[in-house]
Amino acid sequence: QVQLVESGGGLVQAGGSLRLSCSASTGTLRMYAMGWFRQPPGKEREFVAAISWSGSTSYYADSVKARFTISRDNAKNTLYLQMNNLRPDDTGVYYCAARMVFDFSVYRTSNEYAYWGQGTQVTVSS
User: Fold this and answer.
1) What is the DSSP letter of 85?
2) What order do you get walking across the sheet with 78-83 strand by strand?
3) Has residue 14 got a pLDDT over 90?
4) In this predicted model, which residue has the larger pLDDT, 28 or 37?
5) Mean pLDDT, the chain, as a whole number?
6) Of all helices (H) and strands (E), which one includes residue 2?
7) Nearest-CA neighbor of 86 among 48, 125, 31?
């Protein structure tokens, strides 16, 4: 079992950047596919980005392609989300999620993940 802790959220102006981190407080992330999801105010949780356990495969929601980059450092047991050119509609609570895997798959729906962090707030002002 793995416990996830997100950090790096905050308030930023439109066009700015933030880097979110997700660390495992217990266990190792080495054999876990990982993903980032977000929940905008008053809306359902939505997919943002996903990455295979090795980092060799990644996938992005259309709304964040070319602006966000998902990456991981298995030696540091940490997942990242670099967010550039932020827009007000990127505002929300951002969650990292993990799923144990034995291949290089990535997963894009929330019900495919077993473990979740508590979330970190990202607010983008116009």
Assistant:
1) S
2) 3-7, 18-26, 78-83, 68-73
3) yes
4) 37
5) 96
6) none
7) 125
Does residue 25 contact residue 77 with C-beta atoms inside 8 Å? no
Q: Kindly state the average pLDDT of the residues 1-17.
A: 95
Query: In whole angstroms, what separates CA 29 from the centre of its chain?
Result: 14
Report which DSSP code applies to 106: -
62 contacts: CB under 8 Å, gap ≥ 6: none
Secondary structure of residue 88 in the 3-state scheme: helix
Residue with tokens 């964040």: 64
Residues 6+ away with beta carbon under 8 Å from 53: 29, 30, 31, 32, 33, 34, 74, 101, 104
Q: Contact, 106 vs 59, CB < 8 A?
A: yes
For 29, other C-beta atoms within 10 Å of its C-beta total 24
CA dihedral 48, 121, 20, 97 (to 10 degrees): -50
Q: Which two tokens stand for residue 58?
A: 């990644």
- State the sign of the Cα–Cα–Cα–Cα dihedral 30, 8, 19, 105: positive
Judge whether 3 and 118 are in contact, CB under 8 Å.
Answer: no
- Give the tokens for residue 5: 């802790």
